[in-house]
Amino acid sequence: MTVSIDIGEMAGNARAQMDLEELLATRLLVQGNSGSGKSHLLRRLLEQSAKWVQQAIIDPEGDFVTLADHYGHVVVDAVGTEKDLQMIAARVRQHRVSVVLNLEGLDADRQMKAAAAFLDGLFEADRELWYPMLVIVDEAQLFAPAVAGEVTEEARRRSLGAMTNLMCRGRKRGLAGVIATQRLAKLAKNVAAEASNFLMGRTFLDIDMARAADLLGMERRQAEAFRNLDRGHFIALGPALSRRPIPVKIGPVETSGRGGSPKLMPLPEQPKEEAKDLIFTPSEGEAVPVRQRFSEPKVSTEDVLSRLSNAEDVAAADVPQAENLFDVGDREEKIDVILSEILEDPEAAFQPIASLYQDFQVRCRIAKLTGGAPDLQRFRERLSVARAGVEKGDIDESEWKQAELIAGELPDDMRGVYLLLAKAALAKAPCPGNLEIATAYGTRSPGRGRWLLSHMEERGFLVCATDLRGNRIVTLTDLGWQTAPGDEAAA
């Protein structure tokens, strides 16, 4: 069965037909400068072939997500880890669902890693799942660059390897690559060379015109024709299109992208003074950047002497003793209240243990705590949890007891941080940032907070992972709990 799709008009009002089965076997390369109509061409191709073949679109700008409303494509946002994307890609092949991988909002490095993970998942599917699929990659020069750019070498190597697999080895696995690029000179040659069908649009640089002419078998003097092409006009060649170069005008589409070309419109009329107010006056609800300045606490000599004097007076007071070991009354609650009062001072979280313990002893005597103040070791344990600001709240009591039991086996300095992460995981809240972890650890340095997580990971207490948007996910190994993605740089 031969399936042909209509992509537009040729000379003499004849219809330009593309053999879909031949396209699946021979792949397609689309080239044209920005504004030449590449996205329009890809959308026409996708719409015309949607009912005949499964599709997967690698979309760096989120332009093709509108296909979901009309043709049933599932939009896959690049969230989670790379392993998550690979598993989603495997399910895409298994259930034969057309998808749009939306990479909008990611920087170039993470876009390359996400695309590589997804393409690897498609490529590594089991043999019984090798059904025909069109894999459209828009702005392919981003994922298969000819030379190293500003992205990391690891990201470039992985992305280029995935694109090479798609174009060179994908045919036997049912994957037909359709790649679009603004400039042939920026696209890796081993990726471009595997396409046998070409649609060349408007381009102006001599090097790109020369390469386009070579690919189409045209003479160098004919390359000037690419400068004169109108928007939406291409020159086509290939076994799925035509045996000789022919001009094609791409037909209309039913859906539209979220971007599009900007339209000119007049500026709003307003007096100069009002315009200045709009610029220099914060609007309602506008986020105002906060600059945090940390300074060492300044304690006068008079304050120190006053504290020492008060401590001596309180030490002389009678502290009631328990009649037996079980007569503790509300002792634990009082200790919690005293610790919270100490930590109400923002600088208390960063003071030495010895100073805090002295203050704690004084407050215990003032409160006439039954049985006297706990020893220094017990104080360290309670302080580490109090510093983390962990409160049970609405958390399930039985599950929280598991976290407390495991935390009890950890070193003192890790206990509060572990419970902080446990509460976030149990509540499905974002992972705390480095600064919050550092504060629970008793330091102002976010680097120390990051180091503590690495140290806890080395000892097997947790596993840190980074999702495709650069947010951190922490899994507590003994509990099997996982936090939601969180920005490690969050204040």
Describe the structure.
- By secondary structure, the protein is α/β, with parallel strands linked by helices.
- The protein folds into 3 domains: about 5-250, P-loop containing nucleotide triphosphate hydrolases (Rossmann fold), CATH 3.40.50; about 300-385, no CATH class; about 395-480, Winged helix-like DNA-binding domain superfamily/Winged helix DNA-binding domain (Arc Repressor Mutant, subunit A).
- The protein is about 40% helix and about 15% strand.
- The chain has 17 helices and 14 strands.
- It has helices at about 20-25, 40-50, 65-70, 80-95, 110-125, 155-170, 190, 205-215, 270-280, 300-315, 330-340, 355-365, 375-385, 395-405, 410-425, 435-440, 445-460, and strands at about 5-10, 15-20, 30, 55-60, 75, 100, 135, 175-180, 195-200, 235-240, 240-250, 460-465, 470-475, 480.
- The strands form 2 sheets. It has an 11-stranded mixed sheet with strand order 2-1-11-10-9-3-8-7-4-6-5. A 3-stranded antiparallel sheet has the order 12-13-14, with helices on one face.
- Helix 14 packs antiparallel against helix 15 (about 410-425).
- The longest helix is centred in the first third of the chain and has 17 residues, at about 155-170.
- It starts with a strand and ends in a 9-residue tail after the last strand.
- This is ATP-binding protein.
- Keywords: ATP-binding, Nucleotide-binding.
- InterPro entries: ATPase_Atu1862_pred, HerA-like, HerA_central, P-loop_NTPase.
- GO terms for molecular function: ATP binding.
